[in-house]
Amino acid sequence: MAYVIAEPCIGVKDRACVDACPVDCIYEDEDQLYIHPDECIDCGACVEPCPVDAIFAEDELPEKWRFYAEKNRKFFEGKEGLSPAPGKSKIDERVGN
Ligand code: SF4
Ligand code: SF4
Known about the structure:
Elements: E1 3-5, H1 16-20, E2 26-28, E3 33-35, E4 55-57, H2 67-75, H3 88-94
Antiparallel strand pairs: 1-4, 2-3
The chain binds iron/sulfur cluster (SF4) (2 copies).
């Protein structure tokens, strides 16, 4: 099992979760960020920092967002060698904040 990013991330994508993840298993696509289901160690550290409560343990996903578990998994199919998303702190450094 893994943690899953659901709908509230769409359009927010602030990467606070990336900074919190100890194993760099959060990746970015155009619409939202995704947690790699095989790399996630189920620590839960990303849940609290998310400003829009988008992250859930897979078995605690609200019913209406259950398909996000599959959406997260599908994102990684055939994509070996992807680089994890840069964290919020890294992005802030780049823009000089
Ligand atoms: S639960 Fe832990 S390992 Fe999994 S994505 Fe969140 S911070 Fe990373
Ligand atoms: S902290 Fe929440 S809103 Fe921000 S990128 Fe991560 S899942 Fe998306």
